[in-house]
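User: Show me sequence and structure for the first protein, then do the same for the second.

Assistant: Starting with the first protein.
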Amino acid sequence: MPEQDFTETTSKEATVPEINSQAGTITKLQPPAQPQDEWLKYGEQVSSFLATLPEYVGSFFNQYKQPLVTIGLIVGAIVGVKVLLAVLDALNDIPLVAPTFELIGIGYSVWFVYRYLLKASTRKELTSEITTLKSQVVGKQIPEA
């Protein structure tokens, strides 16, 4: 490799003030070269962005209200199901609670069959109650069969 001649250059802007050689004296550092105007400019930009942020958020919510509500309901339903499953799992770990719930479920099933499913007249009553509930939920009159 050929050797290159390097020359040492010094610039007056790049020089560091000499440190006092006396013991016990403190030298002051020079202020930063970057002017305060640039920091003020950045501060004004951040301030203007924060000032218009509520308008941006409001217009975004107004524009996408239906999808945001739908996503919120889905997330809420998922969280609700997870909490419900956690509570049921905690209850299932308690001794005698799971068999008690099973007995309650069996008892309710026996009562429901006896009350609504054994006789034709009570089956008709159950069908009319279900039809009424459907019409209340949907909001339309459902024709009876």
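Switching to the second protein now.
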Amino acid sequence: MNTAIPPGARAPHFWEATISLFSLVVGISVSIVIYGLEPHIPMLLGIIVASIVALRCGFKWHTIQNGMVRGITNALPATIILIIVGILIGVWVLAGVVPTLIYYGLTFLSPSIFLPATLIICAITALATGTSWGTTGTIGVALMGVGAGLGFPLPLVAGAVLSGAYFGDKMSPLSDTTNMAPALAGTDLFTHIKHMSYTTGVAFGLTFIIELVIGFQYGGGDSDLERISTILALLDDNFIINVAMLLPPLVVVVVSYKKMPAIPGITLGVITGVILAFGLQGADYSTVSNAAFSGFEAATGNEDVDSLLSRGGMSSMMYTISLVLVAMMFGGVMERTNQLKAIADKVLALAKSTGGLITSTVLTCIGANMILCDQYMAIVMGARTYAQAYEERGLAPENLSRAVEDSGTVTANLVPWNSGGAYQAATLGVATIAYAPLAFFCWLSPIVTLLYGYMGWTIWKLEPKQDSDAEDASTAADNQAQADNV
């Protein structure tokens, strides 16, 4: 994204912007991989380096600070959702909603079909509601519990949940990103969805096959059946298990389908859960308030069940919120001082072929997810940077919108410090670096897009305007000739 350069400043050179980027990536990599530390402090050091580079280019401090503030402002809707989802999880466990979903899931889902069933369930839910975050925060949380009860590794379950949720999100006409990408690229919504179906369908089909094959490895022996029976008995002893507990997730799905914004929609889910906690589980105000703030603390006497149900609360999201805010500060500096544009321009200059142009788009969106730390900013960055290049090369804008969504939307949750990755890790209770390799759809999607780009498959050409003008002129000439003959 290009922003105005104030008087006295200059555009940063590519090598200067690269220093800022490398300071972030290397700092985070060393801290996480070598020392096992949190990414917050390395990100703050990245902000310092990016600010020093901006000062070297002549930007005043107030401009740099405004970039940080703008970045934090962009993150505020996500932080509000994080807070409400934390409350929702704690309240839903207390109210018996999550225990009921786990109970029914363990009763009806067998290990051999659990992973592909999880993929399909999350895909349908996200397709109907248009939200991957809402899907993982509600249905996804319950399926994580079911998977744990069936003996599946939690990163594997998280990968299936996210694969289904992001497929449904990017193919749903109700999704904000699915509406945003074609609007920025210059095409219409349903042309965009149709064009995405070619690559997204292949990536989802491959993911389904992978989940099916992996699922067959979990046959559910006697020990698993005994473990499941124990969990079912404990859930039945400690909570009222009733179909009425399915009301809160049903409310969230319905209001999302009716296009209610995420914040009030999830809040309605919280309110419904609170009513059930008071009315059916016999909770008092103090218990509900503690679950909403600190999360639910299970005390069934079984370590597995207690670990499964002890989760949620507003306080559980504070780590994630602080990570998102710091990440968006870095992205704000990089955007406001045009350092991100310097990197994108260099990448665009290397794109000589159609495949190269699509590769540049994909890499820019993935890079923006790492630098700007937000999938919406990645979509904006990819679409705005390359729209003119696609038009100049005679490529239809739906090629751009597809490449942007196939990379910008689905890879946000694979970056630990991105708002998407931080949210999903906090919601599902699995570290981003643990589930990322197993979220098959999310990394297969950009790979399939790159393959289609280089092979020239379903790459639609732009209809030249002069062709229609020439046709009109030819028709007019024919009409005139006929008139002259008469």
